[in-house]
């Protein structure tokens, strides 16, 4: 079912004079600095100088119907990935094993740790797993100028901007309601036709972490446990994480400690009871905001520390298995109706999920994989301009687009058997929004932007009973980038945090 006809051109962004723009920028800076909508200015000044996080001047107009569809389907996505993890046939294990050899330095290492965890009988295993997910979507424009909601990727580890999403949407709501968008030309914002909601992702993610803590404390009959944040050593986006930490303490009196993966040895202890300890405090939940990239593992010590955390009674967010379930290969496989029905039995639910998928090709020795290889080997820009090549990696900056696909593979991976570590995904035909402006490092960029909608969700599963115990929608995020940029990482310098105006 198509979402609706073209909408963007019928809604007008405010046109402000230079004085009004200066006032607006000043308000954005003051509000952001007052409310924690900030990042470290650069990697060289991580203890001294902060700056307003990159934002848009106005919320980006989005069809309400599409937004509601994304929100409504999140629990079905949570259920899908939960069922993959709870599957009794070892389907996930088989898939990950098949791709691990083609990404030996990361997926292969994670899989190796997972096997060691599975075979280790020296400790008590935790049967509860908590997943904090983010599902990313774009609006795909069809040839008849209608829109469909299409999935970009499903993230199972270190989902970011849950806190800053709340802050930037609150900023835009404040500016809208306070009249700062009233320009010399009447806009859609003046007419009050637009709903500018505030994302409750910060509160909801903190609440989901609390659910994990409560689960552990009830299970183990222990009180006053703490949460361990595993973070990167040079993290520009630290405040997005700290805001969750402060929410946990201010609302629930749950304390948290922050360490890097290399600091685990020396700061974290594990005794014969299989509990993790930070000094004398029992750690109920390990929340990974790192360990999603090879760069996070600088030595064998780093990998050993990751396994050390896994082989404990603490609830992991995510476990190694849950992290591996977020591989692009899994996304490719579940886009097939035959495989999807293995995990989602309800026909209406599976159809709703299928409607959000684009075509994703494997690059293995299957018939479909051989077909995709032939497409690449034709080296026809008219064909390849419709695709993006994705590895089994997170964190941005890893994808190869359009006509760059063929030379990248030929130059870097001449053995076509090794292409199996990648997927070939049809590009989503997302159309840029005109009329908004990005504010980054106090510079204004009045350019066309592309916006990606992220939906947060949480699931808690019991691997013994094979049941989903908790399934929630946890809010939303909008990230926007320059329309001529392939990557949309905010911290990496490609994009900004944005919010939505619904119509």
Runs with pLDDT <50, length 5+?
Answer: 1-5
Strand content: 15-25%
The overall average pLDDT, rounded, is 92
Number of strands: 22
Q: Structural class of the helices, strands and pairings?
A: alpha+beta
Instruction: Tell me the overall shape.
Output: globular
Tell me about the largest β-sheet: 6 strands, mixed
Taking the alpha carbons of the first and last residues, their distance comes to 18 Å
Radius of gyration: 23 Å
- Helix percent band: 25-40%
The total number of structural domains is: 2
Total helical segments: 16
Structural description of this entry:
With 503 residues, the chain is α+β, with helices and mostly antiparallel strands. It folds into 2 domains: 8-358 and 437-502, no CATH class; 359-425, Glutathione synthase lid domain (Dna Ligase, domain 1, 2-Layer Sandwich), CATH 3.30.1490. It is 36% helix and 23% strand. The protein has 16 helices and 22 strands. The chain has helices spanning 18-35, 64-86, 91-100, 107-119, 162-178, 201-220, 238-252, 264-267, 300-310, 320-325, 328-334, 337-343, 347-354, 367-377, 381-384, 405-412, and strands at 38-40, 50-52, 55-56, 60-62, 128-141, 147-155, 226-231, 256-260, 268-270, 276-278, 281-288, 315-317, 360-362, 387-390, 400-401, 423-426, 438-440, 443-445, 449-462, 467-482, 495-498, 500-502. Strands 7, 8, 9, 10, 11 and 12 form a 6-stranded mixed sheet that branches. Strands 6-5-19-20-21 form a 5-stranded antiparallel sheet. Strands 13-16-14-15 form a 4-stranded antiparallel sheet, with helices on both faces. The longest helix has 23 residues, at 64-86.
């Amino acid at each position: 079912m198509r979402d609706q006809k073209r909408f963007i051109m019928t809604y007008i962004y405010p046109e402000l004079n230079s004085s009004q723009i200066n006032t607006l920028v000043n308000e954005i800076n003051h509000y952001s600095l007052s409310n924690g909508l900030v990042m470290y200015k650069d990697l060289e000044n991580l203890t001294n100088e902060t700056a307003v996080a990159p934002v848009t001047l106005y919320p980006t107009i989005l069809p309400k119907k599409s937004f509601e569809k994304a929100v409504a389907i999140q629990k079905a996505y949570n259920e899908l990935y939960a069922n993959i993890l709870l599957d009794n046939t070892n389907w996930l294990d088989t898939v990950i094993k098949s791709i691990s050899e083609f990404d030996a330095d990361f997926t292969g290492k994670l899989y190796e740790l997972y096997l060691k965890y599975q075979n280790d009988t020296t400790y008590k295993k935790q049967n509860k797993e908590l997943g904090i997910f983010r599902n990313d979507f774009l609006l795909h424009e069809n040839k008849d100028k209608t829109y469909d909601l299409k999935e970009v990727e499903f993230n199972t580890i270190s989902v970011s901007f849950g806190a800053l999403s709340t802050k930037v949407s609150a900023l835009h709501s404040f500016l809208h309601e306070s009249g700062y968008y009233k320009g010399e030309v009447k806009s859609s914002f003046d007419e009050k036709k637009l709903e500018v909601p505030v994302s409750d992702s910060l509160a909801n993610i903190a609440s989901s972490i609390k659910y994990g803590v409560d689960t552990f404390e009830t299970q183990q009959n222990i009180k006053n446990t703490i949460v361990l944040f595993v973070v990167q050593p040079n993290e520009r986006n630290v405040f997005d994480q700290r805001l969750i930490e402060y929410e946990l303490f201010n609302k629930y009196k749950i304390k948290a400690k922050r360490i890097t993966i290399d600091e685990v040895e020396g700061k974290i202890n594990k005794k014969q009871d299989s509990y993790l300890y930070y000094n004398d405090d029992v750690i109920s939940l390990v929340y990974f905001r790192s360990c999603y990239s090879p760069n996070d593992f600088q030595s064998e010590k780093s990998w050993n520390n990751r396994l050390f955390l896994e082989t404990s009674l603490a609830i992991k967010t995510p476990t190694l298995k849950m992290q591996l379930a977020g591989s692009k290969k899994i996304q490719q496989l579940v886009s097939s109706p035959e495989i999807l029905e293995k995990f989602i039995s309800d026909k209406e639910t599976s159809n709703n999920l299928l409607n959000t998928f684009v075509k994703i090709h494997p690059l293995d020795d299957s018939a479909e994989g051989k077909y995709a290889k032939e497409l690449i080997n034709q080296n026809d820009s008219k064909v390849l301009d419709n695709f993006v090549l994705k590895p089994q990696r997170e964190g941005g900056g890893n994808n190869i687009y359009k006509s760059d696909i063929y030379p990248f593979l030929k130059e870097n991976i001449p053995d076509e058997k090794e292409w199996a570590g990648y997927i070939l995904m049809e590009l989503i035909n997302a159309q840029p929004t005109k009329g908004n402006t990005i504010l980054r490092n106090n510079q204004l960029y009045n350019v066309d932007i592309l916006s990606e909608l992220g939906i947060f969700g949480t699931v808690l599963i019991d691997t013994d009973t094979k049941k989903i115990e908790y399934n929630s929608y946890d809010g939303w995020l909008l990230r926007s980038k320059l329309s001529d940029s392939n990557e949309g990482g905010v911290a990496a310098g490609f994009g900004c945090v944005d919010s939505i105006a619904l119509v």
